[in-house]
Amino acid sequence: MDVILALKKTMIAISCLTMFACSNGPEEGRGGMAEQYTNSEFAPVMPDEPLGPEHGLRFDWKLAKLHLDTLVDQGAKWCFPAAVAQAEEKQNRIARELAGDLWIDAANDIVIQRKRLNDLELKLNYVLSQARCVPPRNRSTLESQLAVVKQIFDLLNVDNQFAFNSSEVNPKYMGHLAQAANLMKTYPAIELQVTGHADATGTEEYNERLALERAKQVKRYLMIFGLEEARISTLSLGSSLPLYDGDTPGIMLTNRRVSIEVIADEAELETAMRDSL
Fold first, then answer.
1. How many CB atoms lie within 10 A of CB 34?
2. Same domain for 158 and 99
3. Strands 232-236, 258-264: pairing kind
4. What is the arithmetic mean of pLDDT over 81-95?
5. Taking every annotated instance into account, which residue ranges of this chain make up the domain OmpA-like (predicted)?
6. Where are the beta strands (DSSP E) in the chain?
């Protein structure tokens, strides 16, 4: 047992060191070669393979996968299907990043995934103290719910970059905002959390303000397109959590963005889905 604990501490320490490693950076699109990887199974250490920093990240990925699998086994998929679907997508993205040797990108996404799973565990524990999470009677309704959530998530997390030192929403992303807002009008149980980001240029304080202004601009347009203000929350991470590490123009552009989480009240969403059929 002591050996296992020591190994775990060693792996976690190594993964922390990789936060200062260099990334290969993405090709134009959504992550370059790492996005082409579909296999999501990793062993923390391969036989006869030298121990390197990537093993710490693989170990952390495996721990996150075990955490997610445990939550699913406890019923999270039935009480919080939207949250589980997004967590699974993030887990697969990290796997593709690891396969593409994008260590810093994987490390950043693991930080996000840990917080997401911890929040999901807290919500699940509360629900399980009051009731049970069981499969819905109508599985097709559940699949329809997840399809709607995924469609909104995909719309709002593509073409979401900003020009240098600007909070103006680009026209292509504005079109995505209009489509998502129109879709969400049918499902009032869905809410959004908009997080603003900045590149590494500028001071920490300035980047914090600029990133928040980007999030607020996105919220402003969603409201113009018909969403109620109460359904959209905003926050800023400044330049503290870049999507990719590096200082090339393409990477800096990618880091000037908003990221959007789709938050769904599962019971209300199921009712709305039935009413729309």
1. 23
2. no
3. unpaired
4. 83
5. 149-266
6. 190-196, 232-236, 258-264
Listed residue (258, 263, 98, 275) closest to 192, CA to CA = 263
What is the distance, to the nearest Å, from the Cα of residue 126 to the centroid of all Cα atoms in its chain?
23
Q: What's the pLDDT tens digit per position in 163-218?
A: 999 999 999 999 999 999 999 998 888 899 999 999 999 899 999 999 999 999 99
Same-domain check for residues 220 and 111 = no
Q: Which tokens is 31 given?
A: 């992550």
- Distance (Å, rounded) from C-alpha 164 to C-alpha 206? 13
pLDDT at 138: 62
User: Cα separations (Å) of 142 from 78, 149, 256, 269?
Assistant: 9, 11, 35, 9
Question: Could you tell me the CATH number of the domain that includes residue 144?
Answer: 3.30.1330.60
Q: What is the pLDDT of residue 210?
A: 96
**88 and 181 co-located in one domain:** no
User: Do 258 and 191 lie in a common domain?
Assistant: yes
d(CA 214, CA 87): 25
CB proximity list for 205: less than 8 A, separation 6 or greater:
none
Residue 33 has a pLDDT of 31
Choice among 26-35, 36-45, 48-57 with the minimum mean pLDDT = 26-35
- pTM (2 decimals)? 0.60
Determine, yes or no, domain membership for 23.
no
Whether the pLDDT of residue 271 is over 60: the answer is no
> How many angstroms separate the Cα of 206 from the Cα of each of 37, 218, 220, 237?
37, 19, 21, 11
Q: Which domain holds residue 170?
A: 138-277
Write down the pLDDT at residue 266: 56
232-236 β-sheet, strand order: 232-236, 190-196, 258-264
**Coil/strand/helix, residue 144:** helix
Residue 6, number of CB atoms within 10 A of its CB: 10
170 vs 41: CA distance, rounded Å: 37
